[in-house]
# Entry
Amino acid sequence: MPEGVLEIDRISKRYGEVVALRDMSFDVRAGELFGFVGSNGAGKTTAMRIALGVLVADAGEVRWNGRAVDLDTRRRIGYMPEERGLYPRMKVLDQLVYLAELHGMSTNEAHTSAENWIARLGLRDRRTDEVQRLSLGNQQRVQLAAALVHEPDVLVLDEPFSGLDPVAVDVMSQVLREKAAAGVPVVFSSHQLDLVERLCDRVGIISAGSMVASGTVDELRSGGVPRLVVESPTTDWTVTLDGVRVIEKNGTRCVLELTSGVDDQTVLHAALAAGPVHEFSRHRPTLTELFRNVVTTEGRSA
Amino acid sequence: MTSARAVSLVAKREFVTKVRTRSFLIGTAVIIAVLAGYVVLQSVLFDDQQRSVVGFSGQATQLADPLQEKARAFGIDVETRDVTTMSGAEQQVRDGSLDALVTGAPPELKMIVKGSGDEVLTTALNDVLRQQVLVAQLAETGKTPQQVAESLADVNVAVTALEPVDPQRGQRLAIGLIVAALLYYSLLVYGTMVAQGVVEEKSSRVVEILLATVRPWQLLLGKVIGLGAVGLLQLLVISTVGLGLSSAFDVIDVGALGGTALLTGVLWYLLGFFLYATVFAAAASLVSRQEELQSVLTPISMTIIVAFVAGINLMIGSPSGTTVTVLSLLPPFAPILMPGRMALGVAPAWQVLLAVALALAAIAAITWLGGKVYANAVLRTGARVKLREALKI
# Structure
């Protein structure tokens, strides 16, 4: 039986005529930060809501440790919905204690844990203020505390970084890393791809309701068609090589795309034979480039 | 975590949050103040009506005691005063500190009043005067007045009442109306509060976090129980203070009548609240913003208002009439009309039991249906959810 694994197994969801999710599958393992990226309307929020049981999937299953998630296991998930939600007229401390109790903690545990997270997230001065009196940034911190206060076994966060100032982004990143290091699978969605690239162990790119690419950042970046960056005075030598195409030229610098099977050493020899080479490297696309690539291809095929 | 714990956590939050609000404290205080004002006003009015101050001057003074006795027999209280100067006494009649001034000597007696004299008082005075004259003339015939009086004492008309008047009818009606009014207020205010709570959770989106850990019906039930308890608390505080004030000021003979009314009031509050709260909650779950709330609540509020206004009028007119009897059996109207009729003492036991049974059946049906609408609609934000869509699945 798998331990500490959240599996999303071929879930599908339609809203009337609109297909929101189509056979979406991925898993998040213990101690792993999983980044979930995709353009607006790709289905990220729908997938998370289904994982939390807030929505019911038309098909497919969400499993925790190999067993279908039910209300009791769901209670052990920490959730931050895309649409932030707290009682506006409830005090910060009361609110966190209430949510901790609703997630199955005893009153004492709930108080201890709420105070703990309030201190941890720098909200001690505001603990008896009504949530509506807090700045948006502080409301976000309370929202994170609300997801963490019951010491969940899994974290599912929808856009946790949106609207945070740089300090809060650091606090949030640190908390998520710590949770992952403590063996909690963490899955979050974000549009800040550089952040996802820096933070996540694995990334899933979702488009039009399906997972189109997933893997470690390294895997994703080195996957696909191999590309080379070469800096040499001329590119004329490339025409003599089979399976090599110039896809970008910028002064003396060019990006080459190789058909699979072409040895990059052959390319290097050809380039040296033609003149001096100042740079020769494997081109690794950034996550942003990958994402743009995936989304535009999918957009065209759809 | 058990369902009971989830429901009780939700209920506790609703109760504590609401009881702590300033609006609850102020609202309760205002109602008690209005009630106290009404009770004091009533007692002052009663005092005024039943007490007449009559001034006597000169030889008329000898009629003071007989008049007081006679008036008591007629059910009015007369306070007598001796007056010395006529002009001063007339001034007192004008400014109202004397209700009447009696002067002269029998049989030439005069009564001076401000506007039109109190009929009962005039009749009593006439009786007293005639008796005085009678005694005087009897004295001339030789029979002692005592002999005549004794023979007269046994002569009475035997009265047979075809429809005996309940001596407590006035009080019963007052209690019935107060109970109906309190229930009307509680159902409307606390029903609306449930609706506002549902929309608050929906518009602030906190409902999504809540529903990730509790089921919709647990959230709904907890909310209804919590706010229902707040309403019950307020109802009990108001009733207790009201009954206390009434007995302190002697407005209503509280005792058994008040106690029974309180019990039936609580019973029907519970039935009515569970019936209406789920409907309020289901209606509220269809909209996403407080501004849209009024439009979905209007039909429900109107039902309660119609039940109250029409019911009160019918109840005062003919509490046992067919219309009011039938209405008081039907679940939407029973919580307001039946306790009123029970307080009036015109509802037979079988009608009460039938109304309770119908109300319970309606609660079961409404809770099931309302719970379904709520569960389907509460997570759908944005445009107003159509009732037909919410009933699907």
Q: What stands out?
A: Strands of chain B lie at 51-57, 77-83, 100-105, 108-113. The interface with chain A takes residues 1, 6, 9-10, 13, 17, 200-201, 204-215, 379, 381 of chain B (CB under 8 Å). Chain B has 15 helices and four strands.
